Amino acid sequence: MDELGIKRQEYFGEFSKLVETHLDESLAETNRNVAEKLARSRNVYAQRYSALEDAQIEIVAKSVEANYPVDRYERILEDCPACGRHGLLSGSFEVEWEVDYEDDGSISGGYPVVTMTASNFSCFFCDLILEGALELQAADLPTTVNIEDPDPADFYDPPDEYS
Ligand SMILES: [Zn+2]
């Protein structure tokens, strides 16, 4: 039995089997719902764009993508699991300050590490909407994203001891 299983056993006692079955069922249900959403969105995409030439699609795609309310840390573009175009992955971000050291071991400064926790995905091309970490996972989308090259000026000043 895995560690989680043992904890469940301790916590739920004789009901652990019931709880486990229920968890498995709700996960299976999420997977089923997401599979249906993906299939529906593939149809939407096919109906919308099948009449267009590739070159036309690229032009349309540019204008559609321009409508995403992209934000550097909370709303980023991600490949859509249904249609393959760019969709918007959104959530909330956390900042942690890491410390830089000099060769002699003294602290020379700090830099921010920004992690976005994703909670929603929406695609303007195929109307796919996924809500919650479970649905994102079921569609193979990331639920945590390291934001590359965050700008320190976007956040609070590093604490005094780092400067
Ligand atoms: Zn899509």
The H/E string reads HHHEEEEHE
- Structural classification: alpha+beta
Largest sheet: 5 strands, antiparallel
Give the mean pLDDT: 89
Shape descriptor: flat
Question: What hetero molecules are bound to the protein chains?
Answer: zinc ion
Q: What percent of residues adopt helix (DSSP H or I)?
A: 25-40%
The total count of strands amounts to 5
> Unreliable runs, pLDDT <50, ≥5 residues?
none
Strand content: 25-35%
How many domains, in number, for the residues?
1
Radius of gyration: 22 Å
End-to-end CA span: 49 Å
What's the quaternary structure here?
A: single chain
Counting DSSP H or I runs of 4 or more residues, the number of helices is 4
Give a description of the structure.
Helix 1 crosses helix 2. The protein has four helices and five strands. The longest helix is centred in the first third of the chain and has 34 residues. The chain is flat, with a radius of gyration of 22 Å. With 163 residues, the chain is an alpha+beta fold. The model has no long low-confidence stretch (mean pLDDT 89). A hairpin with a 5-residue loop joins strand 2 and strand 3. Strands 1, 2, 3, 4 and 5 form a five-stranded antiparallel sheet that branches. The protein is 38% helix and 27% strand. The protein has one domain. Zinc ion binds next to loops. The site of zinc ion (ZN) has 10 residues, from loops.
